[in-house]
Every structure is written in C-alpha cells, then in structure tokens.
Write a structure and sequence with these properties.
The complex is a heterotrimer of chains A (321), B (433) and C (285). Chain A has a single domain, classed as Orthogonal Bundle (MetI-like fold). In chain A, 73% of the residues lie in helices and 2% in strands. In chain A, helix 4 runs antiparallel to helix 10, helix 5 packs antiparallel against helix 8 and helix 12 packs antiparallel against helix 13. The longest helix of chain A has 38 residues. Chain A is globular and about 85 Å long. Chain B is α/β, with parallel strands linked by helices and 433 residues long. Chain B folds into two domains: 198 residues, Periplasmic binding protein-like II (D-Maltodextrin-Binding Protein, domain 2); 198 residues, D-Maltodextrin-Binding Protein, domain 2, CATH 3.40.190. Chain B contains 17 helices and twelve strands. Chain B has a six-stranded mixed sheet with strand order 2-1-3-11-6-12, with helices on both faces. In chain B, helix 2 links the parallel strand 1 and strand 2. The longest helix of chain B has 16 residues. With 285 residues, chain C is an all-alpha fold. Chain C has two domains: 62 residues, no CATH class; 167 residues, MetI-like fold, CATH 1.10.3720.10. Helices cover 68% and strands 0% of the residues of chain C. Chain C starts with 13 loop residues before the first helix and ends with a helix. At the A-C interface, helix 1, helix 2, helix 4, helix 5 and helix 6 of A face helix 1, helix 3, helix 4, helix 5 and helix 6 of C. Chain A: Pfam families: BPD_transp_1. Chain A: It is found in: Cell membrane. Chain A: Belongs to the binding-protein-dependent transport system permease family. Chain A: It is a multi-pass membrane protein.
C-alpha cells in the first residue's frame, strides 16, 4: 500500500520537466496507476469473483443425515435466466419498475431543489458559512440513522401525521410508502447536488455577470444563458452520481419501510435478499444485471446531456463569456 | 487478540480461487465433522447481540477469574437479528476462527447445523434434563443437539384488568369470541375505553408477523409444519379458521387499521398510552408498562395465556441458544463455558436483572424470581405449551413465505384460502430435500 | 427558486432584497426541520420516546449520557471514525488530484475509456462486494485494522473524486498555468501555485463529500472489525439496543446520530473559513 501511495508525487517531480508530447502516455498511465490499483482491489476483484460466482449454483438438497450437500456446479447463464421466470420474474419486474420510478422521481426533485439550494447559498450575503453548514446537515446524518428518523416521523402517530392531521399508514405496503421513501431520499441527498453546483457557481468569474448586466440581460436570461451552461459540467457530474446511487438504493427503503414490501422493493434489495439466503449465484446475477442497467443509463445520460462534460467544458465557458 | 489469517495454506489458496464458495470444497470430508470430541483449551470469544443489562460482563468476569488460561471475550454484533446472522455467516464462509461461542436465535439452528457452521454438542454432558423441554427441542436438528438453550420467550395476552372489572367481567377471555365480546362490552359500558383498539399484536411484515400468524394458525388447531413429520400442512380448514380470526378482526375493526404497521414497540406505545384493551406481547413489556414515567396503565393490567378458537391458544416459541462454531479452536473450553452460562445460578442472575425467561425450568418457581416478576408462572405454562417455528434449513425463505401469505390476507389483497394454498405450495418446494 | 437569481446587483427593488432572505429561511427549514426532530428526540427522557410534542418535556440529557456510557466506548469510536475518514479523505484527494489532473490536462489515447472504467466501478451494488473482500482481508490478516476500512472507502470515494476534480480542472483557465510556466515555474510549481488555489472550491467540496462518505460508511466497517476498540461510530450506534431485546432505544440512537453529525458540521464551518480566507488572500478572483 504505502509504496503505491507514495508514487504519484515522486512521479510528478520526475516528469514535470519533460515536455508532454512523447512520453506523455506513459507518464499519464503512471499518474493513473494508484487509482487503478485501488479500484482493481476494492471493486475489480469482488466484481470478477462475483461474476464467476454467478455462473455457479450450489448443490441442492440434503444428505440423509441432514447436511447440505457440498460443492457447486457450473450452470452457465442459468442463474440469469432464473431471474426472469416464475415468481422471481414478477419480483424482478416489480423491483425494476420501483428502482426506475424512485430514480426518476428522486433525481428530478433533487436536481431542482439542489440547484435552488446552491443559488440561495451563493447569493446569501450574510452567514453564508452557517447556511452552508446547515445545508450539509441532511447529508451528514448517517443513512441508517436518517432512515430510522424518518420511520419515526412517518409512524401512524408520528409527527408527519400530526402535522397533516390525518392518519396515513406510511410504512404499510402501498403507494404512500413510495412517497415516504422519496421524501426521505430527496431530503438527504439534495444537499449533495447543491454543494457540487455551488462549487461550480463559485468558479464563474463575476465579470461575466457584470458584462451581461451591461448588455441589459434580465435575471432569468442570466440564469439560462450564463449560470446554467457554466455550472452544467458540475451539475452533470452531480446528477450522474446521484443517478447511479439512486439506482442502487437499498438501506433507506429497507430501514424506513421494511424488507419484502412490494411497493418499495428495489433491485439491490432483491440481490441482498438472495445473498442473505445463501444463493450467492442468483444474488450476484441480480447485481450484474443491475450493473448493466446502470451502465446503460449512465452511458445514455452522458451521451445525451454530457458529451461535453470532459471534452468541451472550456469552449462552453468561452461561449459564456 | 490476534487472528490467525487462515486455516492452512492449501485451504487459503482454495478460498481465494473459489471466492464466494463457488468451487468445490472437497478437502473437507463431511463425515469427519461428526462424533469427534470437542477438543482444545484456551481463550474463546462469545459472540452475541449487545447486552445492556450490564449483567453479561459481570458473568464473563466471573468466568475469567476462574479460568485465567481460558478467558472469554465478548464480541458484540449489531442489535438487528438479520445483521447478527449475516456477521456469523460471513465469518463461517471465511472459515474464520474469530468466533467461538455463538448466541443464535432459536430459528437459526437448522440452517447453521445443516451447513456445518456449528459443532454437534455432547448432549449427555450438558444436563439438558433441567431445561424446559420445548426449548431443548429448538436446539436440535435431525435429533442431535447443536445448540443449548440459554433463554426462552413466549407471547402473553396483556389485558386491561381495570376496564374488565368496570365492565363486570371477572376473568381474562380464553377464546377469541370471548375476547371480542368482552371488548364490545367494555366499549359499550366504559366511557374511557370508547376509542381504544380492541386487540393488537405484531402485524407489520417482519419476523413478528410470522410469530403472530403461526400463533393464529395454531390457535385454530392448524399447523404450519406438521410437528411429527416435518412436512408443510398449512392448507387446512383449521389453519384457515385460525388465520381468519385476524383477517376478520381487521375487517370489522376489532383490530385497528394502523395495527398493520405494529411492531413490538409501536404496539407497546399504544398499550402504555391506554389505547389498547388486549395486546399480544412478549414478557419484556411487563416491566416497562409498570414504569410510572411513561406508562398510563401502571397497575391496571395483567397477563394471561393467549386465546384460541376453541379454548386457550398456543404461543410461538422465542429465545436464544448457544452454539459452538465449527471453525473455532478451543471447543473443549467452549463446552465448559456453555455449561457455565446455562447453570441455574447464572440464569437466575439474568432473570432477576431484566426478567428474561430462563431455560432452567426450576427458576420459574423460584420465590425470589416470582416475587420480582409475577408473570413467571404464566410464562412457564405458555412456554411449555408453545410451538416452535418450522425447523427449516432455508428458514429465511420459509419465514418470508409465511409473512407474504399473512400480510396478503390481513390487508385483504388475497383471500385466506388463496394465501394458505399459495403458502402450502411454497413451503413444499422450500422444504423438499 | 426565482428568489435567487439576479439579486447580486445593487439598486434592486425591495422585494428583490427581501426574497433572498425568504430563500434562506426556506433552505434552513427544509434542511433542518427533520434534524430538529432528531435533536428533540435526543433530549427527551427515554421513557418519553413516544411523545410527539414539539419541545421535550421535561428536557433530559439521559440519552446523551447513555451514548457516552463507558460501556459503549463511544469516544473511542468517534476517534476511529476520525482516523478512518481523515485518512481516506487525504489519500483520496492526493490520488484523485493527480489522476484528475492527468485526465484534464494531458492528452493521450484512451482517455475516455479510462474515465469510463473509473465511473463503471461505482455502478456495482456495494453490498455484493463485502463477502469477497472479507475473505481477502481475512487471508491477509487485515481484520481489525484501519486499512481494512480505509482501502474500501478509498475505492468507493475515488470515482466521484476523480470525476468531480477532472471537471474542475478542465474549467480552469489553461492560460494562467502556461503564463506561470513562462514566468519560470516548473509544471509542478505551476500546478501547486496556480491550479490548486483556483480549484479550491472544487477540492474543498470533494473533500467534504469524501469525508462524509467515509465517516458514514457502515457495511464494510461492520464486517471487517470485530474488536470493540477498532469500531467506528456508525457501527457502535448500530449496537445500541434496548434492555430486553425488543425495546428500541430510539432516543439514544437519535442522540448518537446527533453526536455523530455535529462534529462534521463544525468541521465544515471551521474549514470553510480557511478556504474562503485562502481564496481572497491569493487574489485570484
């Protein structure tokens, strides 16, 4: 560990004098290697081990004296096809729909609220530090704790119902439980988007706005023409990561509403449930399918909205000027 | 305490290559795990959910004082049963020797034994005769003892004695019919009870529902799994009659709508606030409901056995058993530790601190214990008549199936008939070996 | 939302000057009302936990004291959390900054593929990574060590850090760096003296997010550590339970959550001053 971590500074010093033309690829790879090392260990290895696992099935049945049979056999893609048939197929479709619905609903709300938070934080002239710290609070509360907090808020005699003046059974299976999850999730993660967008706002030079004002642009025009295009790269990264996190949503519905409730069961919960019952093959098959789904969504998102995230951000900036 | 990284070099290599147990486990012969004496002496660990009674550490200290070379160290797991089970399974999968004695929920015995995660215990040495018989049953799998009961639990009917008296009812109801009739009488005659709920239990979709649904089915004379053959037998008129009591009570309002979200704690909140007349609950509520700071029903309630369809009902058995990890080193020490922890002295101390139901039968008649916890005799009867939950290797799937069926029926999403026939089919698949 | 934009200019009508404050109030209510409930629940007596009055009656520190019960060694857990999250943040930033700089500033083939691979690593459900890692770390004798928690957290945090920083570096004016190099700075100096201060908001934001991610990490910390002295705070909280198995000490759990959250917020407040000061001192704006 220690040696790999010490590499980058040394590498920079060694490479800093060189022109970035010829050896730049090798130099780049050197700079990238610590990241790849960590990711290969923490993510790559488990994912590959998991994928291998998903091609095997544990032997079924018991020996005459009651022990589970040892060993497992290679079953190819059987664990995958099993996801789409029978009871599991229904559960899969339901979870797929829930996951997608939660993602769309929460990410849209979080984006709108997050941008709002960022603009307000950016504009606030006084006590900006306090506001910023306040906005961070929801994000700082550990997820399991915030699930517990919201469960308490949403219990039949809880404060939510007291405020609303009616008894909604938020934690019972049904559409209302979806709403509860969305509220809790949006509360917790809007600050994430807010914070990243705020950082984006802070690097926009003031002169850009001043120039626009001289040209007589209205506040709304400035928002659409300057602010939004200039924070777009930061916003897209924020939304992309929220999108990926949301698609993997697990603890919140589990703690807030409970396991095995159709209205909030997500794909991650299904994977967890299978693994919890020792069917690691099927569990990792779910995880792999979820991974592919997220990859597709992320790819489409980047292609449609963020093709310029990395490449042309600077051109945008110039255009803004 | 240092952890030995791995059992052996060969096993280690195999582990890495097979990752999550995907490959073969050939090097371990199934036969040799049995009938081998439990050997090895030295330090051990005791793995349990957190104990806040403050008593556990005292007992461990006492043990350590007497066994300076075989000390025990407590490893506390999460407070959630699911997470406790996960941690134990993860360690078993990694074949780690970090855990020696495991504190298992009674329903995990079959799964842990069948997967060879826990060692068979020398039944003859452990003095199981002094323990309540149904509790010992929960530690057995294929007629061999794998886990030693340390405490037990059974549901009781908490009822508002004061209101019953005011309504002129002299004794606790023994059947569901009596219970609902008593409730109607009380509501008609006693003004303060007008808005209270009749009956509550644990009906949210979790393990508590499995317990309550099983009790309802047993109360009707039915069974989830046949006690003698171990075969599922839930699609019967008796089972239906039992479950229908709850289903109909939800429909006609004898159980309030919000009870579908009831866990132990939410039900307790309503009972303590005086909003529930009858409440199926574990013994833990007794002391809390007598606490003047939070409870409005201090001195106003009593406990009785659960009601049934015709005559008294049957409780589902709870509690915990201690087992020894197959991968642990000092198993002989662990056996002694088990004996110590289930000795009448230690269990009595436990019972006296928080009223935990002991597994040692004699303690229920111990004057000191009964004086402090008057429900003990009633609890003993409840445990002696209690039914265990299905002993399934795939218990996780079994309990999910029971919850699925019961929740569907209670919320009116499926009919009772449909729910039970679906459940029967699922259970047949799950227990087919 | 319309309250926010544009109000930067002076000579605005009254409602323009008031509206930002309305916005601020809205933000604080949205973010802090549920947190308020948490604090209130923490200060009730444990026996009043089912209350829903807006103020605890009576106030009690019993829950807070229960959190710091010597038996829980919660102080030690907070320290462990600080070590794990702090180390993770520093390492993530160091590695992340060099990676991001490379991706933003150097031209080489396969750059998009690299970015793609990095982001793909945060697409796998975290829960399925626990068991393989546990086996590996058991093998290496890493159980009950800080690195068994730091390294996975590092892996979870790097993709976000790299992407976020890359976008930031991309946005910074290239010309300044080149000007600095013409003035005689080496590439490393130009990076340190020009780019890093300019990127401060982005680096700072990333640091906060990474620190919080690591601070709140639970599943890995729960699985890799079985020694009380090595537990992090989130794990310790998860072990709070009632006396009798079924009772849930909600108040104590909320008290613990408050105790875990507040240091983060205070830390942000302190660091923020520094960063803002650094920005103005550098005169970059």
């Amino acid at each position: 560990m220690a040696t790999t971590l010490r590499k980058p500074p040394a590498a920079v010093r060694a490479g800093s004098g060189k022109p970035a033309a010829d050896g730049s690829r090798r130099f780049a790879l050197l700079l990238l290697s610590p990241t790849f090392l960590v990711l290969a260990l923490v993510v790559g290895y488990p994912v590959l081990a998991g994928f291998r696992e998903s091609l095997y099935a544990k032997a079924e049945g018991l020996t005459p004296d009651g022990f589970v049979k040892e060993g497992s056999e290679f079953v190819g893609l059987e664990n995958y096809t099993a996801l789409f048939s029978g009871d599991r197929g229904d559960a899969f479709l339901n979870a797929f729909w829930n996951t997608t619905f939660f993602t769309i609903a929460t990410v849209v709300l979080e984006t709108v609220i997050g941008i709002g938070l960022a603009l307000i934080m950016h504009q606030a002239l006084r006590g900006r530090a306090v506001i910023r710290a306040g906005v961070l609070v929801p994000w700082a509360v550990p997820t399991a704790m915030s699930g517990l907090l919201w469960r308490w808020i949403f219990q039949p005699d809880g404060i939510a119902n007291a405020i609303l003046g009616r008894q909604i059974l938020w934690t019972a299976d049904g559409f209302q439980s979806k709403v509860a999850v969305i509220i809790a999730e949006v509360w917790k993660t809007s600050p994430f988007i807010g914070l990243l967008v705020l950082a984006g706002l802070q690097v926009i030079p003031r002169e850009v706005y001043e120039a626009a004002s001289v040209d007589g642009a209205s506040a709304l025009q400035k928002f659409w023409r300057i602010t939004l295009p200039l924070v777009k790269p930061a916003l897209i990264v924020a939304v992309l990561f929220r999108l990926m996190d949301s698609l993997r949503m697990f603890d919140l519905p589990y703690v807030l509403i409970g396991g095995h409730k159709e209205s909030v069961e997500t794909l991650s919960m299904l994977a967890w449930n299978e693994a919890g019952n020792l069917r690691y093959g099927v569990g990792t098959a779910y995880a792999t399918v979820l991974f592919l789904y997220i990859a597709v969504i992320a790819y489409v998102f980047v292609k449609v909205l963020g093709a310029d995230v990395i490449g042309t951000a600077r051109e945008n900036r110039k255009a803004g000027k | 305490m240092r952890l030995t990284p791995l059992v052996g070099a060969v096993a280690g290599l195999a582990l890495v290559l097979t990752a999550c147990g995907g490959g073969s486990d050939d090097e371990k012969k199934p036969a040799e795990t049995k009938a081998v004496a439990l050997e090895g002496r030295g330090p051990i660990t005791f793995v349990t959910g957190k104990d806040t009674s403050g008593n556990l550490q005292k007992q461990i200290d006492a043990w350590n004082a007497g066994h300076p070379n075989e000390t025990a160290k407590v490893i506390e797991l999460s407070d959630k049963a699911d997470e406790q089970r996960n941690s134990m399974i993860q360690n078993a999968q990694a074949k780690s020797d970090a855990y020696t004695v495991l504190n298992l929920d009674v329903v995990w015995t079959a799964e842990f034994a069948a997967n060879r995660w826990i060692a068979e215990l020398p039944e003859a040495d452990l003095g199981v005769d002094k323990l309540l018989k149904p509790t010992v049953e929960t530690g057995k799998y294929f007629n061999k003892l794998y886990a030693l009961p340390a405490d037990s639990d059974a549901g009781l009917l908490y009822y508002r004695k004061d209101l019953l008296t005011k309504a002129g009812i002299t004794e606790a109801p023994k059947t569901w019919k009596d219970l609902f009739a008593a409730c109607d009488t009380i509501k008609a005659k006693v003004a303060e009870a007008k808005d209270a709920g009749c009956y509550g239990g644990q009906f949210d979709k979790y393990e508590g529902l499995t317990v309550n649904a099983s009790e309802a089915i047993n109360a009707g004379g039915g069974q989830v799994v046949d006690g003698a053959t171990g075969k599922p037998n839930v699609n019967t008129p008796e089972a239906k009659a039992g479950l229908d009591v709850l289903v109909n009570a939800f429909k006609d309002g004898h159980i309030t709508k919000k009870a579908i979200t009831y866990t132990e704690e939410l039900g307790r909140a309503d009972f303590q606030a005086g909003n529930l007349l009858f409440h199926r609950q574990w013994p833990y509520q007794y002391a809390l409901a007598q606490d003047k700071k939070s409870s409005k029903v201090v001195g106003k309630f009593d406990v009785a056995p659960l009601p049934g369809v015709n005559g008294l009902g049957v409780s589902t058995l709870g509690g915990h058993n201690f087992a020894i990890s197959e991968f642990a080193k000092n198993k002989a020490t662990a056996v002694d530790f088990l004996k110590y922890m289930t000795s009448p002295e230690v269990e009595k101390a436990n019972a006296l601190v928080i009223g935990k139901a002991p597994s040692v039968a004699a303690l229920y008649d111990d004057p000191e214990v009964v004086a402090k916890f008057p429900y003990m005799p009633a609890l003993k009867t409840a445990i002696e008549n209690a039914q265990g939950r299905p002993k399934a290797v795939k218990y996780g799937d079994v309990t999910t199936a029971i919850q699925e069926a019961a929740y569907g029926a209670l919320t009116g999403k499926t009919t009772t008939d449909q729910a039970l026939s679906d459940l029967q089919n699922k259970l047949v698949t799950l227990t087919a070996q | 939302m319309t309250t926010a934009h544009g109000a930067a200019l002076a000579r605005t009508p009254l409602h323009r000057r008031v509206l930002p404050y309305v916005g601020v109030v809205f933000v604080l209510v949205f973010c802090l009302a549920p947190f308020y409930w948490m604090v209130v629940s923490a200060f009730r007596r444990p026996s009043d936990q089912f209350d829903s009055s807006l103020l605890p009656a009576p106030w009690s520190t019993e829950n807070i004291r229960a959190v710091f019960d010597p038996d829980n060694s919660f102080g030690r857990s907070l320290l462990n959390s600080l070590v794990v999250a702090g180390t993770t943040t520093v390492l993530t930033l160091v590695i992340g900054i060099f990676t991001a700089y490379t991706l933003a500033r150097l031209d080489f083939r396969g750059k998009n593929a690299v970015l793609g691979i990095i982001i793909a690593t945060s697409m796998f459900p975290g829960i399925s990574q626990v068991l393989p890692l546990l086996k590996l770390f058991t093998d290496w004798g890493w159980i009950n060590t800080y690195q068994s928690m730091v390294v996975p957290s590092l892996g979870f945090a790097l993709p976000l850090a790299v992407w976020n920083l890359t976008v930031f570096f991309k946005q910074l004016p290239f010309e300044l760096e080149q000007a600095a190099m013409i003035d005689g700075c080496s590439r490393g100096q130009a990076f340190r003296k020009v780019i890093i201060p300019l990127a401060a908001p982005g680096v700072f934001t990333t640091a906060i997010l990474v620190f919080m991610m690591a601070w709140n990490e639970f599943i890995i910390a729960l699985s890799m550590v079985n020694k009380k002295e090595m537990q992090t705070a989130t794990v310790t909280i998860s072990k709070f339970t009632g006396m009798r198995g079924f009772d849930q000490p909600f108040g104590t759990q909320m008290a613990a959550a408050v105790v875990v959250t507040v240091p983060l917020v205070v830390m942000v407040l302190i660091f923020q001053r520094r960063i803002v000061a650094g920005l103005t001192a550098g005169g970059v704006k």
